[in-house]
Amino acid sequence: MSPDAASTGVEGGARIAERIDSLLPQTQCTRCGYPGCSPYASAIARGEADINQCPPGGAATIRALAALLGRKFKPLNPAHGVESPPSVAWIDEQRCIGCARCLSPCPVDAIVGAPKFLHTVLADRCTGCELCLPPCPVDCIEMRPAPAPGADQPARNRERYDAHLGRLQKRAQERQRELAALKASAAARSAAPS
Ligand code: SF4
Ligand code: SF4
Ligand code: SF4
Could you say which of 3.30.70.20, 3.30.559.30, 3.30.230.10, 3.40.50.720 is the CATH number of the domain covering 85-174? Predict the structure, then answer.
């Protein structure tokens, strides 16, 4: 019997989602229709998504998911894209205008640069997710072939994505603290006798 969330309860469903997530490539590319690998894994565990929606994982990932969940293999759903060879982003520095719009979409902080400076991609960090391409106003980012990823690549992608989320959370907390301090100072000023 397939170990789906409905038959194992909430805790069992979470465990299954974790096991599913561990089989996904962790590029966080969103091509499955979910905002990342973990939400897609949870949707599969809940029976809301099919196992053939991840183009970066392709047939190998579908086979692994089918084996885990006791389902039959089915080909990649073309509505989500096609399986393609590994690639990494490359920035044409002659054309880059330093607008920095490619920085925030990168889920693993693989682009280095600052506003008004040329940007470059750290190829060994890039997951090939292509999320930096659409925001570039001058189309100076292209995908280039990359070596086949090692077996530990998904774990490394995940680690870098978690670090990225951690940095975002820290920045948001800092902003909240700054905002609270500004509000407190404004309130103190307006309460002070004139
Ligand atoms: S790598 Fe696969 S599971 Fe992860 S976000 Fe991309 S399509 Fe979805
Ligand atoms: S550099 Fe571009 S393609 Fe590479 S991980 Fe970052 S957003 Fe994805
Ligand atoms: S979005 Fe394009 S032009 Fe802007 S910094 Fe990134 S690579 Fe350069």
Answer: 3.30.70.20
**Inter-residue contact 97 to 137 (CB < 8 Å):** yes
- The pLDDT of 73-101, averaged and rounded, is 95
pTM: 0.87
131 in contact with ligand 1, CB cutoff 6 A: no
CA 26 to chain centre: 7
Q: Specify burial of residue 158 (Cβ count, 10 A radius: 0-12, 13-18, 19+).
A: buried
Would you give the end-to-end CA distance of the chain in angstroms? Answer: 75
Atom 4 in ligand 2: residue holding the nearest Cα: 126
Segment 32-41, tens digit of pLDDT: 999 999 999 9
